[in-house]
């Protein structure tokens, strides 16, 4: 199966949220997911979708501007990433992460990444781009937040 990553179309965003939020937050209703989707601004978000060669959505990622460093470069936040369960553990998450990040960094001069996760710490540590290192970790019982910056 061939796959590719491209910018997510506006018409695909609700499909992404429906899949991603339903898997991450099973107690949410469809109406709750719709309200969440409507509340997210469009200005700084970068949406990417992973499609197969039949046009089927396999996953997606959302990145946004988190903050700026003193030198003006952005801290880019990896807001969400999702791969359909039946396609997980096939390298597609790694491909999507790296390609979405590459595309976003091409558009936004980036000096650091912000990633907050409660289930995928090992994954994000493994897929950080060459030249980035883990800077700091803030941990709680439920989540780990870490920043990464270029070496």
Notable traits:
alpha+beta, 7 strands, 4 helices, Aminopeptidase, 151 residues
Could you explain the architecture of this structure?
There is one protein chain. With 151 residues, the chain is of the alpha+beta class. It has four helices and seven strands. A hairpin with a 5-residue loop joins β3 and β4. α1 crosses α2 (30-38). The model has no long low-confidence stretch (mean pLDDT 79).
Helix and strand arrangement:
Layout: E1 3-7, H1 13-24, H2 30-38, E2 46-52, E3 57-68, E4 74-83, H3 92-107, E5 110-117, H4 121-127, E6 132-139, E7 144-150
Parallel strand pairs: 4-5
Antiparallel strand pairs: 1-2, 2-3, 3-4, 5-7, 6-7
Helix pairs in contact: 1-2
What is this structure, in a nutshell?
With 151 residues, the chain is of the alpha+beta class. It has helices at 13-24, 30-38, 92-107, 121-127; strands spanning 3-7, 46-52, 57-68, 74-83, 110-117, 132-139, 144-150. The chain has one domain: Gcn5-related N-acetyltransferase (GNAT) (Aminopeptidase, 3-Layer(aba) Sandwich).
């Amino acid at each position: 199966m061939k796959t590719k990553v491209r910018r997510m179309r506006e018409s695909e965003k609700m499909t992404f949220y429906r899949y991603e939020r339903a898997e991450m937050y099973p107690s949410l209703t469809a109406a709750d997911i719709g309200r969440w989707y409507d509340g997210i601004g469009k200005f700084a978000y970068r949406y990417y979708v992973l499609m197969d060669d039949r046009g089927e959505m396999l996953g997606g990622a959302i990145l946004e501007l988190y903050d700026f460093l003193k030198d003006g470069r952005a801290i880019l936040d990896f807001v969400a990433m999702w791969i359909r369960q039946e396609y997980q553990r096939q390298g597609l998450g790694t491909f999507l992460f790296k390609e979405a990040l590459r595309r976003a960094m091409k558009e936004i001069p980036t000096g650091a990444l912000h990633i907050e996760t409660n289930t995928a710490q090992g994954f994000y540590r493994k897929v950080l781009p060459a030249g980035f290192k883990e800077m700091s970790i803030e941990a709680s019982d439920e989540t780990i937040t870490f920043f990464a910056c270029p070496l």
